[in-house]
Amino acid sequence: LAHGGGGRLMRQLIEEVFLEPPPALAWTERHDSAVVPLGTERLALTTDSYVVTPRFFPGGDIGKLAVYGTVNDLVMSGARPLYLSAGFILEEGLAMEELRRVVASMREAARECGVRLVTGDTKVVDRGKADGLFINTSGAGHVPEGRSVHPRRVRPGDAVLVSGDVGQHGIAVLSVREGLAFETPVQSDCSPLTPLVEALFSAGVDVHALRDTTRGGLASALNELALDGGVSVLLEETSVPVNEAVSGACELLGLDPLYVACEGRMVAFVPEPQAEVALAALRGHPLGVAAARIGRVTEGPAGRVSLRTRLGGHRLLDLLSGEQLPRIC
Amino acid sequence: MIRLAITVRGVVQGVGFRPFVHAAATARGLSGWVRNRTDGVRIEVEGPAPRVSDFQRALEREAPPAARLEHMGVEALPLQRELGFRILESDPSAPPRPSIPADLATCPDCLEEVVSTSARRFQYPFTNCTRCGPRWTIIEALPYDRARTSMKAFAMCSVCEAEYRDTRDRRFHAQPVACPACGPSLRLLGPEGDCLREGEAALREAVKEVLAGGILALQGLGGFQLLVDATVPASVELLRQRKRRLEKPFAVMFPSLDQVRTVCELASEEAAVLTSPAAPIVLLRKRLSGGAKPWVADAVAPGNPWLGALLPSTPLHRMLLDLAERPLVCTSGNLTDEPLCTAPGEALDRLRGVASLFLVHDRPILRPVDDSVVRMGPNGPLVLRRARGYAPLPLSLRAAPPYLLALGGHLKGTVALTVGEQAVVSQHLGDLGSIEGARLLERTVEDLLRLFEVHPEAVACDLHPDYASTRLGERLCERWGVPLIQVQHHHAHIAAVMAEHGLSGPVLGLAWDGAGLGTDGTLWGGEALIVEGARFRRVAHLRPFRLAGGEQAQREPRRAALGLLHAMEGPGATVHLRDAFTAHEADVLLAMLGRGLQSPFTTSMGRLFDAVAALSGVQLRTSFEGQAAMALEFAAGEDAAVEPYPLPLRNGEPAAADWEPLIRALLGDRTQGAPASLMARRFHASLVSLAEAIASRAGLPHVVLAGGCFQNLRLLRDIQARLRSRGFEVWTPQQYPPNDGSLSLGQLAVAAYRYEEARDVSRHPR
Ligand SMILES: [Fe+3]
Ligand SMILES: [Mg+2]
Ligand SMILES: [Zn+2]
Ligand SMILES: [Zn+2]
Fold this sequence. Notes:
The structure holds two protein chains of two kinds.
Chain A: H1 8-18, E1 34-38, E2 41-50, E3 56-57, E4 60-61, H2 62-75, E5 80-91, H3 96-113, E6 116-125, E7 133-143, E8 159-162, H4 168-178, H5 194-202, E9 209-212, H6 217-229, E10 232-236, H7 244-253, E11 266-270, H8 275-283, E12 292-298, E13 304-308, E14 314-316
Parallel strand pairs in A: 5-6, 10-13
Antiparallel strand pairs in A: 1-2, 2-7, 3-4, 5-7, 8-11, 8-12, 9-11, 10-12, 13-14
Chain B: E1 2-11, H1 17-27, E2 31-37, E3 40-47, H2 49-61, E4 68-77, E5 85-91, H3 108-115, H4 158-165, E6 186-189, E7 195-198, H5 199-211, E8 216-219, E9 224-229, H6 233-243, E10 251-253, H7 257-263, H8 268-274, E11 281-285, E12 306-310, H9 315-324, E13 328-332, H10 344-351, E14 357-361, E15 373-377, E16 380-385, E17 395-396, E18 404-406, E19 416-419, E20 422-425, H11 435-452, E21 458-462, H12 468-480, E22 484-487, H13 489-501, E23 507-517, E24 523-532, E25 535-542, E26 545-546, H14 557-569, H15 583-595, E27 601-602, H16 605-615, H17 627-636, E28 649-650, E29 655-657, H18 660-671, H19 676-698, E30 702-706, H20 713-725, E31 729-731, H21 743-763
Parallel strand pairs in B: 2-5, 8-14, 10-12, 11-15, 18-21, 21-22, 23-30, 25-29, 30-31
Antiparallel strand pairs in B: 1-3, 1-4, 2-3, 6-7, 6-14, 8-9, 9-13, 10-13, 11-12, 15-16, 17-20, 18-19, 19-20, 23-24, 24-25, 26-27, 28-29
The structure holds fe (iii) ion, magnesium ion and zinc ion (2 copies).
Residues 489, 493, 513-514, 516, 707-708, 740 of chain B line the site of fe (iii) ion (FE).
């Protein structure tokens, strides 16, 4: 099954299985979380499942991922995250000690994000029926009055910002899982995006849209956002922050860092006149010091993301089909 | 007395055919008329029977050099007894057929005018006539008439108009006819688009700039070109730097055959191609420098014993080169990996950082057409890049297939379509990896469909899901509601050569190239397929090996070598490649190979060439496609065959050629200090033996050679000779390139078979 890479097949799967009429879900827009009315207030809801091998990696573990990931999905709709639930599927034989460490890590992460783990569930399945440990977390948050963060609000001319250098998480996990010793060890970037988003709003930025760059990396996140927003995006290759350890590893691996996963990075679409203010706001926080302006929204076909390369040409950053198979003859 | 209606199809428009017919009829005192139709030319001719048949013979024997008569239909008609022979207006009612001519190099008569001080067109850079000049680059629609070309904006002056109407004139109905009074003109622009000079002064200033070491962007016939002084190393280096093109050879335009001879060996057949109406770049063997002048800087084609040479093919180029009096580098006016710029605005925008001056004109270029590239092969000229002078000349098919469109590969893109009994393959479009490239592909499709008024019943493309051409195919099929027919890469390679030679199979095809997606999801490239129509069977391939880093391995032959060694020796592989990797690189790459991480399996012959190039010390890294394989071919030189390395074909369905004994023997040679040239020759010899072994096993009389590896002349020549000596009939690419440039043609051929099978099944349901 090549549907998990965050690429074209993943999108197809979602469209074909979940969004065919009548939609299995009440919301028909693909967004990280759903925003629904609750009395006069707006509630953001989201759910996500976490599977990662190995469960502990430099810079994080599956527990942190399960908290940050769901928190970040809430934050991407402009919400302040409030509550989380957690469901565990344990494979028989998982060490109790390991589970304790994961849960402790989740508590710590939840405290850091200011959310409360309020309910949970645990199931144990037979050996071989699950890969050690699966975690599902759901989250609820409150969208403050006046915030409107949605792909629909993206406009040609908007500046595109990224909150930090890309590709660390994917490389960190890969190096541990595959036993690859890179010259400079790479740490996962897994972290909560709450402070960065709050920093943008405190600075008075009229944030149009946000998306965390998880599976499929920066390129895939932008593809989805551009498609949902009905716009094109033009990036400058020289502006996209990639640290040297990651770019070195990517060259060896034959990977494009723009397609490598992050777990603590987001792209923000903001009005051009506010770009510098927004950038300063991001850089003012330790998690956003490497924030950069990487491109802009342009008129053009919905979902087209292109990159002006170092050589001055333009490359299409499309959603690749599953495996990246060499195209060069 | 008799009257005949003669319909002629082929390339008969825009090549001076009607004036020729008129002259031939008038000379024989025959009456009647000739007229262009969208499907060719129709002639009605009347007179005494012997003179009419003499006229018919003249049609075949004396037609203008650029005309190509593909089909002549003759029918008897009742007498009409009119007076004289006339040329009638075009008749647009018949359905369009591809008889669009290619652009033609300036003819001797026009050249003469351009240099003779008394001629009206003295030093006029846009001089042309019915036998020469722009065609494909200026045609908007069919039939070919001035009103449907990019010359329509220029109103003819009375003198030009008189020439255009005079049946005895060389310019009778020469659609792009022009002169200094009424035609296009030159301007020299600075990098900001400011006009510095006009007319002849523009030309002189431009040449001055080039001779002073500058880079000139020239709006040529089919797009912009970048020119620098080829004799000055610093100028060539500057161009390399600005274009960010490290080592890939540049072509050189020479002012004369004599200057070509000073720098290169030139056989008479090569000279004939250089001076033909197509006037392509011809790859010639460089002479050893004997101190003769002019000489060409090494940086033009570093480390390469061959040089791409061409002669001026328009009066503009002729005048430039006459003023420069020396060879000039003449390379496509684009950014690396992007399509050619065609309009001044676009060139200013994209080439501002490259060129210092822009010499432009106001005759719009309707489609980008690059210079073609030809190499003299064992069976005559072998077209490596098919563009100016060749495209869009049609290929006759044996039967009329359905209307189909084929979209080709990912690099060296071309589009092909069927129109009646013919296949038309577009000019070379270049790399489709950039947005500009993908857009050009789409524009070219629209252009061809509009010109030929064809609505495809199906679209063919490659199997690879991420080729720009496949993506376009999916979109088009959805838009038009027609089926998408995906054709395996190497099947298409072989089918292209079969189409060129009118073969329907079964044949044994050796498709040896870089890589294409196979039906099993791995990267094929060292394939032997038995092909018959819509079907193929894989009968042999190279033993699969892993490529650490996938596409990245294509730029680093050392990775291909590591893949082979790892398959042989596991983690100990690097002992044979000590200098090629740092310890850290080796660790990571071996771990990737060991775990199969980002390390797809391949059976690519191109990568086997890479591995051998790396292991024999010829090339560890490359900066352009095919560089290592070229270096290995050059290392092998022309010397006679030697003892091959063992490359046994292991039994199986399909059989696998095991490179392990080859690599072991090569490492043995290397340990004993054998020179790279010997290892390269032995490697080539092993492939010749392999080809023979595969052919014997397949037992089919016809063998087709296809794929990028057969740009290697030593390989092509030796395999062909060996197979012929064993009684096989061997078919090789000639008019259409061995590389991915002919994938569209192959896809078209396979799709035609498949489409008809599907139609037959639906007509006669079982
Ligand atoms: Fe190929
Ligand atoms: Mg998520
Ligand atoms: Zn002429
Ligand atoms: Zn005139």
